[in-house]
Write a structure and sequence with these properties.
CATH class of the largest domain: Alpha Beta
Number of helices: 12
Number of strands: 16
CATH superfamily of the largest domain: NAD(P)-binding Rossmann-like Domain
Helix content: 40-55%
Strand content: 15-25%
Structural class: alpha/beta
CATH architecture of the largest domain: 3-Layer(aba) Sandwich
Largest sheet: 6 strands, parallel
CATH topology of the largest domain: Rossmann fold
Length: 318
């Protein structure tokens, strides 16, 4: 049985990944790592052990690894894209200096490590349609630069020291559990909240801007299934393209209006978000993930929209 540490367990992905890991492996086998000021509560606190775990504090991580006999780390600590642009030094400290701590401890204790990458690791010079698994990566944001570095550093620790490092390039993630937190693709979460509240939605992304998106249950499935994959079948280890759906703001708006016909949307473009979105791929080619570890998404835009509206409506009534 695995003993897992989730660093960043109260963040956008970690707050949903941790309960899912506990469901699969048992609550006592999954430690919720958190930073001071972002302590777990409710199910996240009560469902298993938790420990203060700042990714920039290597000694703290090492002590948790030893105390709970950890063999697997999901390193989810990072700043989202727009936040990172406003706090570049902090983004690097968390994303890269923190990753170095995790990988060094993994090397010393022979741990398996998952550290997510992103579609933000690509830039304007990358082919935007059916972006290949292996292609040019020249991002122009500190978020993207840190994600490329994450992939390369993780690969280096694998080649040099044999550390079992793995990662996927997450597209924009849509969830009814975690509120938006400063990501370029967060409009695709905000729009559902507005629809359920009966409010007009003001879209910060220009009409016609395609971006890869994924429903959070598929994102969790991708992370966990990659970590369970047979290493002998993996040609790549870090930075797997994964895809589920690609849409522009007007497309998701039209899908929501099938269920909420009075819903209205206008545009008020945010220049920073628009520039970042323009530099990212329109659609990723995820054939390597499908071939090497059987990746298959379970939700498309239509099925996600039905589920999002139902789940958000239920949560907002509580």
């Amino acid at each position: 049985m695995k003993n897992i540490l989730v660093i960043g367990s109260t963040g956008q992905i970690g707050s949903e990944l941790t309960p899912e890991l506990r469901r699969l492996y048992g609550g006592e086998h999954v430690v919720a790592g958190y930073i001071r000021g972002a302590e777990p509560h409710g199910e996240l606190l009560e469902g298993g052990p938790s420990a203060e775990c700042d990714v920039t504090n290597g000694q703290q991580i090492a002590e948790i690894v030893q105390k709970y006999h950890i063999d697997t780390i999901y390193n989810m600590a990072a700043l989202l894209s727009v936040v990172a642009e406003n706090k570049p030094e902090l983004a690097w400290k968390i994303g890269i200096d923190g990753l170095w701590n995790v990988l060094e401890i993994a090397r010393e204790h022979q741990l398996q490590v998952f550290t997510p990458s992103s579609i933000g690791s690509f830039g304007e010079s990358t082919p935007h349609w059916m972006t290949p698994q292996d292609t040019i990566q020249r991002p122009t944001t500190i978020y993207g630069v840190s994600k490329v570095t994450t992939e390369l550093l993780s690969d280096w620790f694998h080649v040099r020291y044999g550390v079992d490092t793995r990662s996927v390039r997450f597209p924009g993630l849509i969830s009814y559990v975690t509120p938006p937190g400063g990501g370029t693709t967060d409009y695709a979460v905000d729009i559902y909240y507005s629809a359920v509240r009966g409010e007009k939605f003001v879209c910060p992304i220009p009409e016609g801007t395609l971006m890869d998106m994924m429903y959070m249950p598929d994102a969790l499935h991708a992370a966990i299934s990659l970590m369970e994959a047979d290493p002998a079948k993996l040609i790549h280890h870090n930075g797997f393209n994964i895809a589920a759906m690609s849409f522009a703001p007007e497309t998701v708006y039209a899908e929501i209006r099938k269920h909420c016909p009075d819903f209205q949307m206008t545009y008020e473009v945010d220049p920073l978000k628009a520039a970042i979105a323009h530099s990212w791929p329109d659609r990723l080619d995820d054939s390597c993930a499908r071939a090497e570890w059987g990746w298959t998404p379970r939700y498309d835009l239509a099925s996600m929209t039905v589920d999002m509206l139902e789940k958000l409506s239920s949560r907002m009534k509580k």
